[in-house]
Amino acid sequence: SGGTTAQVGPGQYTYTFKTLATGFDPTVTSTIGIYGSRNLTAFNLGTDYGSTTFNFVPNGSPVVTTRDVIRNVSCDRCHDQLSAHGGSRRGIALCVMCHTPQNVDPNTGNLLDLKVMAHKIHMGSSLPSVVAGTPYQIIGFQNSVNDFSKVVDPAMAQRCTVCHDQTAGAKQATAYLTEPTRVTCGSCHDNVNFATGANHPAGAYPDDTKCATCHIPQGASDFDASIVGAHVVPVDSSLLSGLNATIVSVTNGTAGSKPTVT
C-alpha cells in the first residue's frame, strides 16, 4: 500500500510501489498480483472487477519456474467465475498469493493455505471432523463466519480430476499424483494423525519423504493405496460388470394409447 497510480492512456494505468521488500532472493521467480474495480452503479451497470498476475525474476533472468497446478477453466465449470471477497479477487493464481502455508485463521486455528482450504471446503459435510460434530468454519473479514459444514460437492470430492483436470493445460497438472503430502491428504482425511499414526495404516510419519512410496500415482486395482485407486467412487469402479439393456418389443404403440416396453 501507499504507492501511486497514474493514467498513461485510455483505460491504461501504472502503479508504482512506495517501497520494495528487502531480503528476498533476486534469482527466483517472483509474482505480482493486482486487482481492480470499476464502479458503474451510477449507470445501472453494477461494478466490473478484474485481476491478473505477472511472473518475473528480479535479476532479469528468464522465468523458467512457475506454479501452475490448476487452471481457472477447471474451477469455472462450477464457479463461473471463480471469485471471492465480494467478487474483487478473481482467479486461482491470485488466490494462492495470500492463501499460503504460513497463514492461519486466528479464531479457529484452521489453515488458510489454499490447498488445505480448497480440499476441506469441497469435502464439507463429508469431512470426518464435521461428521464427528466439529463444524468447519473460517472467520473472515469483519468477523464474518463462513461455515462450510453443509457443503456437498455435486461432482463428489473423490473425483480428483474435476479440479485437477489433465486437459486444461496446467504444466504441473500431475502434481497431485506424484507429490502426495501429509498436509494435503490430511485436509480431507482430517481424522488422521501422522505424528502418532492414528487412522494411518502405515503408522506415524514425521515428514513427507516416503509418502509416494506407498501412494504411487496408480496401482493395479481399484481401492488400493495408490492416489487414483484410493479415490475411486464405487459407482465408477472398473470392477463393476455394468448394465446391458435391450429393447425386445413395444406393444400398444398407437396414438392415444399406453405403450408397453419390454
User: Which regions are unreliable across 5 or more consecutive residues at pLDDT < 50?
Assistant: none
| Order of strands in the sheet with most strands | 1-2
Which H/E pattern describes the elements? EEEEHEEHHHEEHHHHEE
Beta-strand proportion: 15-25%
Largest sheet: 2 strands, antiparallel
CA-to-CA gap between the ends? 72 Å
What fraction, in percent, of the residue positions are helical? 10-25%
Mean pLDDT: 93
Total DSSP E strands: 10
Q: For the CA atoms, what is the radius of gyration? A: 24 Å
Outline: globular
Helix-strand category: alpha+beta
The DSSP helix count reads 8
Question: How does this structure look, described?
Answer:
The chain has 262 residues and is an alpha+beta fold. The protein has eight helices and ten strands. It has helices at 72-75, 92-98, 114-123, 128-131, 175-178, 182-188, 211-214, 227-230; strands spanning 4-9, 12-16, 30-39, 47-56, 83-84, 89-90, 137-139, 145-147, 250-251, 260-261. A two-stranded antiparallel ribbon has the order 1-2. It has a two-stranded antiparallel ribbon with strand order 3-4. A hairpin with a 5-residue loop joins strand 7 and strand 8 (145-147). Helix 3 runs parallel beside helix 6. The longest helix has 10 residues, at 114-123. The protein is globular. The N and C termini lie far apart (72 Å). The model has no long low-confidence stretch (mean pLDDT 93).
